[in-house]
Design goal:
Helices cover about 60% and strands about 10% of the residues. A seven-stranded mixed β-sheet has the order 1-2-3-4-5-6-7, with helices on both faces. Helix 6 crosses helix 7. The radius of gyration is 61 Å and the shape is elongated.
Length: about 475
């Protein structure tokens, strides 16, 4: 029965122990190698461990991993197969684990790759994947698989080991049946240009990528796995990439899924890591090739100095200086070539422009001459026209003056006659007014006189009437 995802993750933890590729002891099974550790626990120490296990707490954690393996008979019974070349251990460490049936027949083979081993070379190789189709370490891993000559392989690894597992699946597809990567980084643009879309689709269907939701390595570059799962990891910061925390954080859930990482126990990727992944992909995609190389080399050198065990700032600064100097030299050559090309273009442009300008100025000169000749003729005709107009205007003004004089003479005569008529009219009106006024006054006096007489008669009548009334009243009283 094939190993579960959980068992593969235990083997990937185990690969961070240098004793995992021991061939000199002559052990034939993983159980025998574990027993050797139990007899000599001092074999596990800071010098023989990497991958975050090289601290006091890390050593204790690794002992827990060994205990987990020791309690699993299927893992103890795994037959130890060929290992990668010890000379390249700083870059690549891998080993075959062969599962056999009770009769000793081989039924499945697992190849587990260690993650970055803590060396400057290994860390720089991580970043060279940004601009190389195949890095030196990837080539070593591929050669190892090809030299095994085995088929139906299950390949696995954590971190850089996961990248190796995915890479050999892509390059040695006929030999690999299944791939499970844990926190493995993706691939750069040059890798994708070397593989057809059809081949990539076929390869991706074999690959499962299991990553801690807060892992910061699997976000690098572009993944090729057909199945990508994000799972719990209780570790923080650097432990977000710890294979031990990845195992312990999911042990309880894996017991419910028969040791397999599935959608049932998956969670969402941390939003910060998701955003960082998207930004990095866009950043790399837009980088020119030479700047991509410079960025990969500078980043690899700097990161390795803070993480690698064999870091040496002197060597790194020298390497950085060399990278920048080489980049600057290439850029200077580009600038010189660009300037030379532009100078030739400028000379050609200037020559063409001067020729065009000369021809244009000649045409403009001819046009100006024609314009002034036409203008001279037009001005002469205009002068003749103005002279004729002025002569006609003089005659018209003379005639107008005579007409104005005659009009004023007639107007003077008309005004004199009007004056005499007005005087006569006013005299007649005054005489007539006097007559009318006298007749009006006489009439008014006559009316007044007649009115006075009428009033007198009326008063007299009223008096007589009163006297008569009083008399009759007196008679009445007398009676």
């Amino acid at each position: 029965m094939a190993l579960t995802d959980q068992e593969l993750l235990l083997l990937d933890n185990f690969m961070y122990y240098s004793g995992s590729v021991d061939v000199e002891s002559g052990y034939t099974t993983l159980g025998e190698l574990i027993d050797d550790y139990k007899r000599n626990p001092d074999l596990v120490n800071e010098a023989t461990l990497s991958g975050g296990f090289e601290t006091e707490e890390g050593i204790e954690n690794f002992q827990n991993i060994l205990a987990e393996i020791d309690s699993n008979d299927k893992l103890r019974d795994l037959k130890l197969g060929p290992v990668t070349n010890p000379a390249t251990d700083k870059l690549v460490r891998g080993r075959c684990f062969i599962e056999c049936d009770e009769a000793g027949n081989e039924i499945s083979t697992v190849v587990a790759f260690r993650g970055t081993g803590g060396s400057v070379a290994a860390w720089k190789d991580n970043f060279e994947g940004l601009y190389l189709e195949e890095t030196q370490a990837q080539n070593i891993a591929k050669d190892y698989i090809e030299q095994l000559g085995m088929t139906d392989l299950t390949v696995t690894g954590h971190s850089k080991g996961g990248n190796f597992a995915m890479y050999v699946t892509a390059m040695c597809g006929d030999q690999v049946e299944r791939c499970v990567s844990f926190d493995g980084q993706g691939f750069g643009p040059d890798f994708f240009s070397s593989i057809s879309a059809e081949q990539l689709k076929e390869v991706s269907e074999k690959i499962k990528s299991v990553n801690a939701h807060n892992d910061f390595v699997s976000i690098l570059l572009t993944p090729i796995a057909g199945e990508i799962l994000y799972v719990e990891n209780e570790g923080i910061l650097a432990d977000g990439h710890s294979p031990y925390d990845l195992y312990t954080s999911n042990k309880g859930e894996l017991a419910l899924t028969d040791g397999m990482f599935t959608e049932e126990i998956a969670v969402s990727q941390d939003s910060l890591m998701n955003g960082a992944h998207n930004w990095l992909e866009d950043f790399v995609k837009d980088l020119p090739e030479d700047e991509k190389v410079l960025f990969g080399d500078v980043a690899g050198n700097l990161v390795s100095q803070f993480i690698a065990r064999d870091a040496n700032w002197g060597n790194t600064l020298e390497s950085l200086g060399s990278d920048v100097k080489e980049y600057g030299a290439e850029k200077w050559e580009d600038v010189k070539d660009f300037a030379a090309d532009k100078w030739e273009d400028a000379k050609d442009f200037a020559a063409e422009t001067l020729a065009d300008a000369k021809e244009g100025l000649s045409e403009i000169g001819e046009g100006i001459s024609d314009f002034f000749a036409d203008a001279k003729e037009d001005l002469s005709e205009l002068g003749d026209g103005i002279s004729d107009w002025l002569r006609d205007a003089k005659d018209d003004l003379s005639e107008l003056g005579e007409d104005v004089s005659e009009w004023f003479a007639d107007a003077k005569l008309d005004l004199s006659e009007a004056k005499d008529g007005l005087s006569e009219f006013l005299g007649d009106a005054l005489d007539n007014g006097k007559i009318v006024l006298k007749e009006g006054v006489d009439g008014a006096l006559y009316v007044a006189e007649e009115a006075g007489k009428a009033v007198g008669n009326l008063v007299d009548g009223a008096g007589n009437l009163a006297k008569k009334g009083l008399k009759e009243l007196s008679e009445i009283f007398e009676r």
